[in-house]
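Why show two proteins at once? Because comparison is the fastest way to build intuition. When a single record is shown, students tend to memorize it. When two are placed side by side, the eye starts asking what differs. So, the first record is below.
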Amino acid sequence: MRKWSLLLFLLSGMLILSFSACSVGSNDPAARAVEAYLQALVAKDAGALSALSCADWEAGALRELDALQTVETRLEGVQCRSQSTDGQYIFVACEGSILATYNNEDQALDLSARAYQVIEQGGDYLVCGYR
């Protein structure tokens, strides 16, 4: 029970720090990077997650991964698209959710509650956090 409460607290905090978003773009490399990042997150693939993160966000990505270690996770209905840019970051909005299952109980983590910050470095699009 204590692990579940800690997980809910951590995931709620992540959702509070973010804002709303939308749908998909198959020719959108920033959106594809976020979708790959989310797939690595639910697959609990630390190596891929690190490779899909910019250096400044890598520790944050691994903290997100740690928060999901004790639950089964899967993506549901995920579609992402670039929303805006500020010159440094491309902001990517997603629809769908991460479903976290603990003791046969699903908790949906709404992905539309945040915009992912993506940066292009040397032709690669890397996730650098969210807002």
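Second record. Ask yourself what differs from the first in the token line.
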Amino acid sequence: MTNMKTITELREAYLAGTYTPTEAIHAFTEVLKEHEKEVHAFLEVFDDLLEQAAEAEKVLKEHGAESPVLTGIPLAIKNNILIKGKKATASSKILAEYTASYDATIISKLKAAGAIFVGATNLDEFAMGSSTENSAFGPTKNPHDERRVPGGSSGGSAAAVAMGAVPAALGTDTGGSIRQPASYCGLVGYKPTYGAVSRFGLIAMGSSLDQAGPLTNSVADAELIHSIISGSDELDMTTISPDTYAEVPLKQTYTFGVPRDFLGSGVDADVMECFESQIEALKAAGHSVVDVELPLLEQGLAAYYVVMPAEVSSNLARFDGMRYGTRGKGEDLLDDYLAARAEGFGAEVKRRILLGTYVLSAGYYDAYYGKAEAVRVMMREELNKAFKTVDAIMLPTAPTPAFTFGSQEDPLSMYKQDIFTVPVNLTGVPAISIPMGTVQRDEKALPVGVQYIAPHGGDQRLFDIGKRTYDETR
């Protein structure tokens, strides 16, 4: 496994003339030759990379430091984000032959910034999973230990960065799908305030939960990519303006809240030791760490696995082999429809569609979905109250390091891996996962992450915390 330069370092080398985008693409190709066969981070590697690199070099030569900030920077893109003319499968058989007819808004912004898109990364089918074991095209492995998962659903993007193929990748986060693989792969993973980034051109899973964000080697890189892809979009009416939320100021020292009662939820002892070390490091740097009570966070997992499947059931109704998806072959129209969905969807997708349809059905809507939405509102109020006394909340990103393939066969045990991340998506606040150390498993040092959560609109506060606690101490 190699360590590729950060975006900032690559940019400086390009401008100094000591490295070129073509050399970066050759380095990418060499990493693929060495690792991709085993890791399987990519579903597709694009065939125009040298042409993209040559164009970037022309721009750099002509404009120098005035060139767009990502000119010649290789990025990997999760395959549920549309790139015009490229396949967008969401790792599902039902979309195996679908080619995007337009760019997602965030892709248009990254193109304008000069990025080179090197390929489409693997994911859990339709972003449903915590391990990238649910892809119709085979699992992705963790570059730190190929017996273990890279996390999910953005596991391919995380693995692409962790194995040194690219300095950054784009993922999507519905319940922790950027932050959890960042923790498992030793990366920075960022989930923005809901609405800060356009969802236009993302294949929807849970429309009130989904947000796109970066996986990087540094917080500064995550901040840079977020600054490029964020902003209101007339094509997505859920995007927000800069004045939607009250200003969240930066400070010289911060007060961090730790919900101790919530941490009793099955955190491995050595992960907890790393977390306590992180707390001591914050105190040594002059910050304050206090206990906070957030009892409703424990209800987050139950509420999420009602709300999310309900939205999945609605969003995936369009994939019927007629409007979207590979057509099924039956004796009549109904048979075609049933065959398309039976053959096109994997087991986890079917499970969530069934659950979502059930909780939305007459007689059960109020008992399940209505109550879950009520809990969601109460959780948001509880967090807002906590943020009146603390500047950020901190938790381990995941209760364990990366687990081995097949060890979480029970769906409920798999869902528990998301216990610390799903409250963020339910409430719409921003969160960042930052490496906080390693733990030993089977003679391997496996990375684990710490998660910081800020108030709505507090994205810059999280970048400030991250740069001071991680980038400046590396």
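One difference worth noting in the second protein: The chain is about 40% helix and 15% strand.
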